[in-house]
């Protein structure tokens, strides 16, 4: 491989990128927009749930029950119903996500040690949200029951002792922040999309402008041509990586817990897999429109759905779990969360590095072979 020829091709490609303002904007501004938009838009924390209440008892204890719910950040009292019959209408018109009916005699029954019930109706259209609301309410009712039992036994001069106390400690993400969990996935998705799409347009431009014929008759080898073509995009993608990491820290306080050197080297390996995939698209596509469409299709959907970015892969059917191996973002997400959130080292994610290297080698090999055949024609 002639270093001078590789350098000349890389310099030429860099000039093309700098001259193409739209592509440069895509490479540098678009990642910043994506991480800002998705970081704020995607949030699985269910808060400010609209709650409607009908209090037939109107006692101090029933008011305490209601105020305890609305005192948290999870529930907001949106409708105070005048009868239990309004519950259906409130849920039907989406005025509240849950309706609570407190029966008459609520206070008296509890004070007398009798069993009483509270009717809770939850809008089940969104199954995930409904299940979260149910869990919130169950947790609150358990706390309320324990406190009520303590108060009742205290009036009788008996101290109630809870036999089992537990204090769960959440490691790595103590605040259970959804954003902190999603930022690494956003980084992999952004780098994959920008890396593949930008590189996929390189050879296609040469084909459309017929300058590829001049390259074919030159002494440049396929390895030199491909290496020179991808070097500028590796450099620009690394700049993208720095931008999204810095914005992740500034906007979402996502601090890298592990080694920055390991993060850099892992990102470099991932970018090689992205660029090799983009290069493969570039050599098989005949127009920029086709290259852009194919590049978007093989990056956006897989990185969003099949990479573990949002949906847990272990919860998918077995045959879908096998299909998830087609996207390098799946393996880079494991690496990023290991470095970003858990702060661990190579020993915890070296298999993912090996996969990314194999992935890069396969698509670089295919790209070189296809280029050789096309240059021979």
Largest sheet: 4 strands, mixed
- Shape designation: elongated
- In which order are the strands of the major sheet placed? 2-1-3-4
Residue share in β-strands: 5-15%
Distance between the termini: 23 Å
Query: In sequence order, what are the helices and strands, one letter per element?
Result: HHEHEHEHEHHHHHHHHHH
Write a concise keyword list for the protein shown above.
377 residues; mainly alpha; abc type-2 transporter like fold; four-stranded mixed sheet; 15 helices; 66% helix
Quick gist of this model?
With 377 residues, this protein is mainly alpha-helical.
Structural notes for this entry:
- By secondary structure, the chain is mainly α.
- The chain has two domains: 3-43 and 177-376, no CATH class; 49-155, abc type-2 transporter like fold (3-Layer(aba) Sandwich).
- The chain is built from 15 helices and four strands.
- The protein has a four-stranded mixed beta sheet with strand order 2-1-3-4, with helices on both faces.
- Strand 1, helix 3 and strand 2 (75-80) form a beta-alpha-beta unit.
- Helix 1 (3-19) packs across helix 10.
- The longest helix has 31 residues, at 222-252.
- The chain is elongated, with a radius of gyration of 29 Å.
- The two termini are 23 Å apart.
